[in-house]
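Weekly structure sync, notes
Attendees: PL (lead), two postdocs, one rotation student
Agenda item 3: pending single-chain targets
PL asked that the sequence for the first pending target be pasted directly into the notes so everyone works from the same version. It is reproduced below exactly as submitted, 339 residues in total.
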Amino acid sequence: MPLLHSIVHRLDPSPEGDRLILTPASTEHAESEAMAELVATLNDAYNTKPKGWGRFAEEGASSPFPAWLARYHQGERDFATITREVAERLCTLLAEQLSVSGYLIFSHSRQGDTETLNLALVHQREGVGIDAEHRAVPAAQLNLGRFSLAARVNLSQWQANAPGTQYVSFLKDRGGKKLAEAVAELLGVEEGIDAPSETRTLLKAFSDYVKQEDYDDATSREKTDTLVEYADEQLRRGEPITLEELSSLVDEQQPKAFFEHIRNADYGLAEEIPPDKRTLSQFRRFTGRAGGVSISFDSHLLGSSIEYDETQDRLIIKKLPTQLRDQLLRDQRKHRGEG
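Predicted structure, written out during the meeting:
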């Protein structure tokens, strides 16, 4: 991922503890392997985190960010200037959120034909390292696995401006509602797609499709694995699930079948869906172990070959695995004295 521009600003609480103070970098970060690796690590971490998705509000919105971005894209403002303006506005919006102090890292990257603008607020923590004389010494480290806020603008999609495209995403983790709202206000974003809800609807559509086609368990499992593997890959890359592409993977013999099922049943899904990691993880399998009993089954089987009776807390298995059935039959014959 070529790094076109990058810069790091610093946010700190004021001595009085009543506001955030910006210490901006005067120039862009020099091209370096370390910065490229830092940005790549932040991008990988961001891709798998829960996010809100949207696009810039229409003209007349309160945020100046889309106009700043347009001037930058047209070459009227440089990277250091626009990022400093964004950082200053962020300090104002987060005046009461003093815990978010840290390093605000901006980057403009290109991957293939796609360019993105990324920002992430990263905290620094004190650690321990080993120096050239093999002695333990204090060593400050950036906590790259956790960051307070982050956002990404797909600049290529923004310029194309296709109807319904959700080209802005921002961190929307549990417990960070106020920060997410501040970032959405900072960028002037109108939130559109609800990733967890859309992912749940897609998985419901898939389960209905598998049931409708009456696949055997092996085929159902194979298609479930295909869906999850594709969604996981899109998550890793930070890209949406494309319904037509997924449909062609689910059934290579009938590449349009699943897509047409979604359209004909009118699930209300957009053609591109940002995958939600937590929802996908829950879809994989149901598992449980207690009192010598261990149960594990693919989630798509619930409601078809496996049913849960909530009133009596019973799990009803309609189609036993052949190996298990044979073992049970042998045990029954043994107890009846049939040899």
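Discussion points:
- The chain has a mean pLDDT of 86.
- The CA atoms of residues 22 and 87 lie 7 Å apart.
Action: rotation student to compare against the earlier draft before next sync.
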